Fold this sequence. Notes:
alpha+beta; cell membrane; 4 domains; sugar transport; Gyrase A, domain 2; single chain; 47% helix; eight-stranded antiparallel beta sheet; kinase activity
Amino acid sequence: xxxxxxxxxxxxxxxxxxxxxxxxxxxxxxxxxxxxxxxxxxxxxxxxxxxxxxxxxxxxxxxxxxxxxxxxxxxxxxxxxxxxxxxxxxxxxxxxxxxxxxxxxxxxxxxxxxxxxxxxxxxxxxxxxxxxxxxxxxxxxxxxxxxxxxxxxxxxxxxxxxxxxxxxxxxxxxxxxxxxxxxxxxxxxxxxxxxxxxxxxxxxxxxxxxxxxxxxxxxxxxxxxxxxxxxxxxxxxxxxxxxxxxxxxxxxxxxxxxxxxxxxxxxxxxxxxxxxxxxxxxxxxxxxxxxxxxxxxxxxxxxxxxxxxxxxxxxxxxxxxxxxxxxxxxxxxxxxxxxxxxxxxxxxxxxxxxxxxxxxxxxxxxxxxxxxxxxxxxxxxxxxxxxxxxxxxxxxxxxxxxxxxxxxxxxxxxxxxxxxxxxxxxxxxxxxxxxxxxxxxxxxxxxxxxxxxxxxxxxxxxxxxxxxxxxxxxxxxxxxxxxxxxxxxxxxxxxxxxxxxxxxxxxxxxxxxxxxxxxxxxxxxxxxxxxxxxxxxxxxxxxxxxxxxxxxxxxxxxxxxxxxxxxxxxxxxxxxxxxxxxxxxxxxxxxxxxxxxxxxxxxxxxxxxxxxxxxxxxxxxxxxxxxxxxxxxx
Length: 634
């Protein structure tokens, strides 16, 4: 291992070319200063290296199950890499500025959404109550409820101060203090009164008088700079007086810089972006609504849909509503409806179950089962969902549909869309449902006919000889199985770490599918290594690239070395929140020592599966001829 570690360090460009290093269950994840210095071909030819992959600004060297040992050897050689805190994990040369910007904004905005969603839902209910004259808008009760629904929007900079401080790893209370300066009542009242445009600091520095309530970028920029300034003073001021002087000097420097430079820049940039988007939508609501509604399934597949979130949030900060929210909602409903249409079109019982369960989860806002389990499989459904979402989005946009908060599109979040554009939203929704169903149905019956194959057996007949002692591996989670070759990660899809299968989970808990021992329990909590009593080495990996979450939204329910039995809880995770961060939540089950067996037979069709139901059948080798090892996946 030591020799392999030395060769890897040399071939990625040496110590001086490595910014940082982490690892997951199969890969060394380098952040290199210059990827062109890495000798990829030579690395791939190294004995012990399964491949090289570039993804998300990382240079990933695929090792397999022994990655932990190789990582430990590299840390022995380069101890400085062990101090890495994850701050620069995605800041590699190949990670574009736009990609980093979107990731940072999403990481800051998403944690603050809980009160925003609650407030938006409440505002929708209050609008409905007052519109139907079921409540007196002048009553004390409505005053309190309106205050409850408005507070988080008005004081949004405080929420962002906390999530920004966590993202930039600086003092949260100092960040909140800066938000307090932006929201200082005298400044806001002066801006609202419009009696002055600026005040003079030191008699010559103009401080623009701006209403920063509900703003986004000003506090994010300020906290970003704060993280550097605060660390600088902490480093240079003697420890005996740093408690007093670090906060003092930081505030004395940060507040003027924030009020004179950063906050005005952030405010006007955000305003102009929102106004530009609004102008484009107003120029042609039909075209913009169609494009956004139709393109979302493709954007989700490409992992680019998160670029929409900051724009939606800025629209709400500027105008108090978003016109893009309803377009995204229509697309989500279209994806669920397309899966529903497939339910009526096919006779295969397993696929009917997949389509129906995907429909239900889709209407509840989780579209991955429909997208990956149905739409990708049936072109008619994909086209139907795209066109139906586009048509519905266009109609909604044309009729003035709006959302009051950046919620996850779901039938449960409909109250957010109940405002003065409610009629347009409701009409657009009905158009989406009808158009999607009809288009999918007609396409499936004509130019894009679906392949409605009868049910097939789990394992091809003849693969298992009579009398052989096979080992069966059950499903660690209920969901929809699909071939590992379709996994959007070449490490798994090319079976570099072993043969296996993928599951799009329906539940948030992973159980042990075997009797055995927990041989690897990663501190990032997203993967587990098991060894069965028969010696089968199993890797259960939850999500793709979820190592980047550093354990957030995961909970380990077992310990390394623990003896487990079928049904023992292993991992608890939050599918909804992980999906909101843009990660594929597929659960990958891999037999990492596949080459020691004659055959590793996985389910050969896309279907619904429940916990503990047989997922993989392993046939012990009668010989070790490599050409006899076969994974049955069609």
